[in-house]
């Protein structure tokens, strides 16, 4: 019989065991082995059934067992030690608190993301974006960075994946009861739940409660619209991650951005937490947070333009997509309907809202509101998530900065990292702890101290190889368990599944491939030549085995067809013991999969992988990477760490031909270089060259891929400058900057480069020569202090484009003359040989600008002047 109503019965813990509840509600247990061991000892059998979730564990422990533990002095001592350790972790000084010049660091940073993958026990993520956000919070906690996370609480999470008998993906959306999750309601002082509200068209409102997940030292605020005050439609706004139509998504993003700022203000008011000086939006989904902050400042007396400058100063925007199709875009009229006098932010002119997100640049679609474009316009600092992705992003968004070369677009990069304590297998951690001690090993994983990774060089080859064998054996056991469960879900009877007991072999080279399944990630590239793949899988001396997992978006039938194609191949009785597809890829599966693989495969279409952190997690466990040079692998690849799959970038636009070429290159690598190295044995019977690569991966690559390194870079390169800019942007300063920008934009049409001359008139010059440049410019209503006149010089390509330019500012020496022209002069040193050229340009300049490109305006010579401005050196 089915229940007509569901509710949660919370356990009543005996007084000595009450601290267990506090430990369960702080998600540090998800990356702290000692705390997990403590919970496991409460009831090992139930711990396994609860999938390692302390809240579910405590909800099912028998009262008799709780009473027994309440009298167990040894258990109580362990409990006290765990509670004291958590207290020290949460309150003690960490990296952030020990930095010189701490006063320049932000008092707090608000970090917004549509999804957070902190632990499988809190399934609020779909893929890499959410896992990255969870790792960011955990690394910030380990480093003591005062972050406040902001997201949504989805009642169905993303989706659970199963397969039909013929291999078609099926989606299931289990209901998540917040009372059964490791979260607590944020409450007002009188005990009532704290609320935020948004105004909707037609006089309606969208209300949301605020749930708090404590991630170590970091609070994560999650908004939930499933409250009685809402109508049915509004209750469903936070129903599922990335679900529904355009208006549903718009409401989610308004709640995340606008409601998220209001939730942060409420949390700081109730707890005394320092208010954020920096707001960081992880992708464009939370971009509306900038509008809410503008509205706050306007309510305090600032005009819109001044408030915009104040908000931009303290905002950081991170883009994760390398393709325009990956960005949320809404119809102009849909956005207009949800703002203004009859809806949200009524005191802000709707046209000003729209102007922030409209694609009003060459190549844009003028009737679409682009969330990433709004994010960039509302942030003074922006970044991609790898060096290559930074370059791709500068090209993709160059239209916002017309007149500038793509490499000058003000988007930098901070390469992603992964939270090692979450992703490193306990067996790997124990091996490291034997070398340097548990605390030093823990510090190395959190902060990335290179000297502590060097000790891997002292670990005997035998120990490394035994560890790899142990992890592979664990993966085989896990795969067989999941494979059996999957086949039972597909309708198979137990009598059909005897073959599963021999699926995979702990002694065979194991390749992992697991990720979301958009077409560009090319799940089925390995199937391009099935006969050749079969030969690799069934090789009599050097076989391989492959574990594959991944989810296609519920609306992506093309992705589902790719999953089905892979599943049908893996169902073939000839190879099903060598290749498997595991449905329902998530954090719990990933934590078993990464350590157990010998090779991590990644074969996206370059350069469409923004970063690709799964290979980082595998590397931290001694797994070698086999990948296209894309994302982070393009940046840090060395032959010591794995293999680069050659790409066919120059074969034209035929995707099938390109896939054939790159698949052949993949097979060649496996046949000729990878499998021979894995199976060859040295004098001691060990694969010496393979072990050497594992050692180099751990020693040299390990410290680079850490989320601790990533968060430190965010602090030093983005958060600290943003905090300083925020503090400098007083109301008067914001008004000054807004007025100056308005003056510059109004006058820029009259800014011209009228004449350029040098002290050398020939087409050649000697290395080391210094030229004297004289430039006559028109500034219209601007003064020399409003601009910087620059000489840009460097090597030129065949089309006379400067490819590695350096800039030198020129100084005003006279003016204005009768024609209103100014004369600027300066030296130009010829410091490189070969084809060399220069030009002159004028940029706006102000002490409060983060970049000369910030206004997106530049003046350059007319074509005929530019043609005569080059210098050729031999």
TrEMBL record:
<dbReference type="InterPro" id="IPR000811">
    <property type="entry name" value="Glyco_trans_35"/>
</dbReference>
<dbReference type="Pfam" id="PF11897">
    <property type="entry name" value="DUF3417"/>
</dbReference>
<keyword id="KW-0808">Transferase</keyword>
<dbReference type="InterPro" id="IPR052182">
    <property type="entry name" value="Glycogen/Maltodextrin_Phosph"/>
</dbReference>
<dbReference type="Pfam" id="PF00343">
    <property type="entry name" value="Phosphorylase"/>
</dbReference>
<comment type="function">
    <text>Phosphorylase is an important allosteric enzyme in carbohydrate metabolism. Enzymes from different sources differ in their regulatory mechanisms and in their natural substrates. However, all known phosphorylases share catalytic and structural properties.</text>
</comment>
<keyword id="KW-0119">Carbohydrate metabolism</keyword>
<keyword id="KW-0328">Glycosyltransferase</keyword>
<comment type="similarity">
    <text>Belongs to the glycogen phosphorylase family.</text>
</comment>
<dbReference type="InterPro" id="IPR035090">
    <property type="entry name" value="Pyridoxal_P_attach_site"/>
</dbReference>
<dbReference type="InterPro" id="IPR024517">
    <property type="entry name" value="Glycogen_phosphorylase_DUF3417"/>
</dbReference>
<keyword id="KW-0021">Allosteric enzyme</keyword>
<protein>
    <recommendedName>
        <fullName>glycogen phosphorylase</fullName>
        <ecNumber>2.4.1.1</ecNumber>
    </recommendedName>
</protein>
<feature type="domain" description="DUF3417">
    <location>
        <begin position="13"/>
        <end position="122"/>
    </location>
</feature>
<keyword id="KW-0663">Pyridoxal phosphate</keyword>
<dbReference type="InterPro" id="IPR011834">
    <property type="entry name" value="Agluc_phsphrylas"/>
</dbReference>
């Amino acid at each position: 019989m089915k229940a007509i109503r569901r509710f949660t019965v919370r356990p009543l813990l005996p007084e000595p065991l009450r601290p267990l509840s506090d430990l369960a509600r702080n998600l540090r247990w998800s990356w702290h082995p000692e705390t997990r061991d403590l919970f496991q000892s409460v009831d090992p059998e139930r711990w396994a059934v609860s999938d390692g979730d302390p809240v579910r564990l405590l909800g099912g422990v028998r009262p008799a067992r709780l009473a027994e533990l309440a009298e167990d002095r040894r258990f109580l001592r362990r409990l006290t030690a765990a509670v004291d350790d958590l207290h020290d972790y949460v309150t003690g000084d960490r990296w952030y608190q020990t930095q010189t010049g701490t006063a320049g660091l932000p008092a707090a940073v608000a970090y917004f993301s549509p999804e957070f993958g902190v632990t499988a026990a809190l399934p609020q993520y779909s893929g890499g974006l959410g896992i990255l956000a969870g790792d960011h919070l955990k690394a910030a906690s380990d480093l003591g960075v005062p972050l406040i996370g902001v997201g949504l609480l989805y009642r169905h999470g993303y989706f659970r994946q199963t397969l039909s008998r013929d291999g078609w993906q099926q989606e299931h959306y289990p209901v998540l009861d917040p009372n059964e999750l490791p979260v607590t309601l944020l409450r007002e002082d009188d005990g009532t739940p704290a609320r935020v509200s948004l105004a909707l068209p037609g006089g309606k409102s969208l209300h949301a409660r605020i749930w708090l997940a404590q991630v170590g030292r970091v609070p994560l605020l999650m908004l939930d619209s499933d409250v009685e005050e809402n109508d049915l439609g509004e209750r469903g706004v936070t129903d599922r991650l990335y679900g529904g139509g355009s208006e549903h998504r718009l409401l989610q993003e308004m709640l995340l951005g606008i409601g998220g700022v209001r939730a942060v203000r409420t949390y700081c008011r109730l707890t005394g937490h320092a208010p954020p000086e920096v707001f960081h939006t992880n992708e464009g989904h939370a971009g509306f947070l900038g509008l809410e902050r503008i509205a706050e400042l306007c309510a305090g007396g600032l005009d819109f333009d001044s408030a915009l400058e104040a908000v931009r100063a303290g905002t950081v925007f991170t883009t994760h997509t390398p393709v325009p199709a990956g960005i949320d875009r809404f119809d102009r009229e849909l956005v207009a309907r949800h703002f203004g006098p009859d809806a949200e932010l009524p005191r802000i002119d709707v046209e000003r809202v729209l102007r922030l997100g409209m694609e009003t640049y060459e190549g844009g679609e003028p009737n679409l509101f682009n969330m990433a474009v709004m994010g960039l316009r509302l942030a003074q600092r922006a970044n991609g998530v790898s060096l290559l992705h930074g370059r791709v992003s500068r090209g993709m968004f160059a239209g916002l900065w017309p007149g500038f070369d793509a490499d000058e677009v003000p988007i930098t990069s901070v390469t992603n990292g992964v939270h090692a304590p979450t992703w490193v297998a306990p067996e790997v951690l124990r091996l490291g702890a034997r070398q340097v001690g548990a605390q030093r090993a823990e510090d190395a994983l959190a902060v990335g101290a290179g000297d502590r990774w060097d000790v891997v060089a002292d670990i005997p080859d035998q120990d490394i190889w035994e560890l790899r064998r142990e992890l592979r054996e664990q993966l085989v056991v896990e795969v067989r368990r999941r494979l059996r469960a999957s086949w039972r879900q597909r309708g198979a009877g137990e009598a059909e599944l005897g073959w599963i007991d021999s699926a995979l072999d702990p002694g065979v080279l194991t390749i992992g491939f697991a990720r979301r399944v958009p077409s560009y990630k090319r799940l089925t590239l390995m199937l391009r030549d099935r006969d050749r793949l079969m030969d690799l899988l069934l090789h009599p001396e050097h076989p391989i085995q492959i574990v594959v997992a991944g989810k296609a978006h519920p609306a992506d039938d093309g992705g589902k067809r790719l999953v089905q194609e892979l599943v049908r191949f893996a169902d073939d009785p000839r190879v099903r013991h060598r290749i498997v597809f595991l449905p329902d890829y998530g954090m719990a599966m990933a934590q078993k999969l990464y350590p157990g693989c010998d090779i991590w495969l990644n074969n996206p279409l370059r350069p469409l992988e923004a970063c690709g952190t799964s290979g980082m997690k595998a590397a931290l466990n001694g797994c070698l990477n086999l990948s296209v040079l894309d994302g982070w692998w393009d940046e840090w690849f060395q032959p010591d760490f794995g293999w680069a799959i050659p790409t066919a970038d120059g074969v034209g636009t035929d995707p099938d031909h390109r896939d054939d070429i790159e698949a052949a290159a993949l097979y060649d690598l496996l046949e000729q270089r990878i499998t021979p190295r894995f199976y060859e044995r040295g004098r001691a019977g060990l694969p010496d060259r393979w072990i050497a690569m594992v050692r180099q991966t751990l020693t040299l690559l390990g410290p680079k891929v850490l989320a601790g390194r990533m968060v430190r870079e965010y602090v030093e390169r983005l958060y600290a400058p943003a905090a300083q800019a925020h503090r400098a942007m007083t109301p008067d300063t914001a008004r000054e900057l807004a007025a100056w920008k308005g003056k510059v934009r109004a006058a820029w049409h009259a800014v011209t480069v009228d004449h350029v001359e040098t002290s050398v008139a020939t087409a050649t010059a000697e290395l080391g020569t210094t030229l004297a440049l004289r430039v006559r410019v028109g500034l219209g209503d601007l003064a020399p202090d409003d601009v910087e006149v620059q000489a840009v010089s460097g090597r030129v390509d065949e089309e006379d484009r400067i490819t590695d330019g350096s800039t030198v500012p020129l100084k005003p020496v006279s003016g204005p003359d009768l024609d209103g022209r100014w004369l600027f002069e300066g030296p130009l040193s010829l410091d490189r040989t070969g084809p060399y050229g220069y030009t002159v340009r004028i940029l706006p300049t102000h002490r409060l600008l983060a970049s000369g490109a910030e206004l997106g305006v530049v003046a350059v010579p007319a074509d005929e002047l530019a043609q005569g401005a080059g210098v050729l050196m031999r």
